[in-house]
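During the reporting period the student researcher (J.K.) took over the structure-prediction task from the postdoctoral fellow and processed the backlog of single-chain submissions. One of the processed entries is reproduced below for the supervisory committee.
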Amino acid sequence: MRSKSLFSVVFMLLVVSMLVVACKPAAPSAPAEPAAPAEPAAPAAPAEPAAPAEPAAPVEPSPDFEPMSLAAPDCEYGGLIKEIAALDEFTVQFSMCAPDPAFPSKAAFTAFAIQPKEWIEAAMESREILEKPVGTGPYVLDSWNRGDSMVFKKFADYWGTSAVTDTLVFRWTSEGAARLLELQSGTVDGIDNPSPDDFDVIEADSNLALYEREALNIFYVGFTNFFPPFDDVRVRQAVAMGLNRDRIVDNFYPAGSEVASHFTPCAIPNGCVGDVWYEYDLDAAKALLADAGYANGFDTKIFYRDVFRGYLPEPGLVATDLQAQLKDLGINAEIVVMESGAFLEESSAGRLDGIHLLGWGADYPHVTNFLDYHFAKNNLQFGEPFPEIYETLAAASQVADPAEAEPLYVEANNKIRELAPMVPIAHGGSATAFKAEVAGAHSSPLGNEYMAVIDPAGRDTLVWMQNAEPISLYCNDETDGESLRACEQVLESLLSYEVGATAVNPGLATSCDPNEDLTVWTCNLRPGVKFHDGSSLDANDVVMSWVVAWDASNPLHVGNTGAFEYFTYLWWNLLNAD
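J.K. obtained the following structure tokens:
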């Protein structure tokens, strides 16, 4: 793993260099060789990166092409996007209401993947698109056996380097011990998120290899200020002071984890500027509760989903420990376990009348991914949003230079601490584990492992086991990591992330170039790209894929939940949302 200081240096260089994403004809390359696991045996070295694919022959634009576009009447609707327009068959232009230096990192994210215009029109209202994605990626979804597995097949007409295996299988179980047992028995080739107690077991087994992730995540305890007593900032601050966060990290997290000083990991520039979080002080917390009129405490609930995450490896144990800690404050908390999809929907809508346990892993390596999503003016997760936070974040997000933006992030982080809409607990260390013989094995700090480069010792099938079943494969309207990772194998976005890392590379676009003030981004599409249904990629596919999410009045603005949360939070607002 890279050190945090090195990550910060690399990231700052990335901020400068990514403003113009250079043209590269190849698909994402295999990851660099990871550090060998502990003795007694090292894993097989990752496969050598395949030679770049030959550039596609130039394709003449069709004279019959009719470019699509959609523009907001003005920027008063509160969103960041002003217009999305196909300039010609292979050029798409994004005009913004304000400078957006993070556009390349956002445009590489799977939540903005591209599907054919005709398929979106045919399959959205019927919701067929939720389980039958038509992408351009190295694998095609062959079957989805609900409750059991997904099977993917190699896409023969992939524009880049072909997948190593003919078949990819995704399986899942919420039990860390069960995942490890499957790996040890040889029924799977790799697993996500081994339990913290199993790190040493894996490293001691010569047949296995552990690949640790940098802790680019956050686990937090959230409050919904729509409901008393969490509408009182003194109550929220009291809980913030009354939780022993060190105890939680020491007891339930693996090596590489740390108590969170701020919401955003310190490895990300401007993540940890401003005052550090409250120190544990039970007496001060009780005094603050008494001042708020709750000297004898109150009754509440702790909501969580029983799904293993890198940011929360032991959800049930952590919930029980938090229940005991709240009891020390005089707060009686009932534990409520919810199904994952229902939990995410209810928490996002601000309908959980108590405390909820949730977290976040980096989707792209920028402070906006953590702060702008959670504290946006349209995010009801913590109840009524705080203008003291979101207005400052909006100003900060328009500044390309991290040093110039720092004072604004100091102000925003200090307001988050003061208003305490949540309590940041931990940045959790996590890992993947593979058979030692598997080449190309890796973990990604973004949690988006790219299976096409992994070679299971020459076998034609790669079997992967993760924590939970995907909710759907229309990831433009999903936020859970299991769905997003599955989508990564099938769908592609305009840009891409380096395998096992965070650098932004070309994807379906050979470049996305900004104007001088970063308010216009022009993306040049790769000609000759085929979708899984045999149709060819053009600029209208890009416009349609984005517009159905952006425009709330579009008849195809359906998705799974219809919330399109990433679009709302990362681009500030949906068009025609009212």
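The committee noted the following: The domain at 217-417 is CATH 3.10.105.10 (Dipeptide-binding Protein; domain 3).
J.K. will present the remaining backlog at the next meeting.
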